[in-house]
Amino acid sequence: MSQQSGIDPRGPRFTAAVTFVIFAVALLLSDAQPAVAAVLTGIQAVFFAIGAGLGVQKTPTGLVFRSLVRPRLTPPAELEDPAPPRFAQAVGLVFAVVATLGFATGAVLLGQVFAGFAIVAAFLNAAFAFCLGCEMYLLGLRLRPARG
Q1: What's the whole-model pTM score?
Q2: What is the Cα–Cα distance from 142 to 56, expressed in whole angstroms?
């Protein structure tokens, strides 16, 4: 990985914090207002789709981090490979889509379970810099058969 292709590891953590808030609000509102929960998780699904397709740095929260937050911070000690966070965005997309469908179709418990999965993953990343999707990506690389 070249220095130019890496990303500031604090960007995905900032994004995870915003994701946590969006899913927390959706969960809090899901019983009384599942349609609002569906909209919130649908918006997050769009953010995840952008992150999975273009990279986490291209998401709305990534752009906010890059333009408003990062200029106020010291440079990162090192940059990280963007591939694991991008994979994590794809995993988040699956959770957000299922949560959205659950809330939108009246399967509120399904929406709550998948929003719960997403909120746990977002919390771990935001609070402890432990990215579950990134770890899944790295595990997949280790389990892949060696090329002969």
Answers
A1: 0.92
A2: 23
Taking the C-alpha atoms of residue 118 and residue 123, their distance in angstroms, rounded to an integer, is 8
Question: How far is residue 113 from each of residues 32, 42, 120, 122, measured CA to CA in Å?
Answer: 16, 15, 11, 14
SS3 sequence of 52-97:
HHHCHHHCHHHHHHHHHHHHHCCCCCCCECCHHHHHHHHHHHHHHH
- Asked whether residue 148 is domain-assigned, the answer is no
Each residue's pLDDT tens digit, 29-86: 999 999 999 999 999 999 999 999 999 999 999 999 999 999 999 999 999 999 999 9
Beta bridge partners of 7: 80
* Within a domain: 83: yes
Domain housing 101:
7-143
- Nearest partner of 13 among 52, 54, 69, judged by Cα: 69
Please count the structural domains in the chain: 1
- The answer to whether the CB of 59 falls within 8 A of the CB of 50 is yes
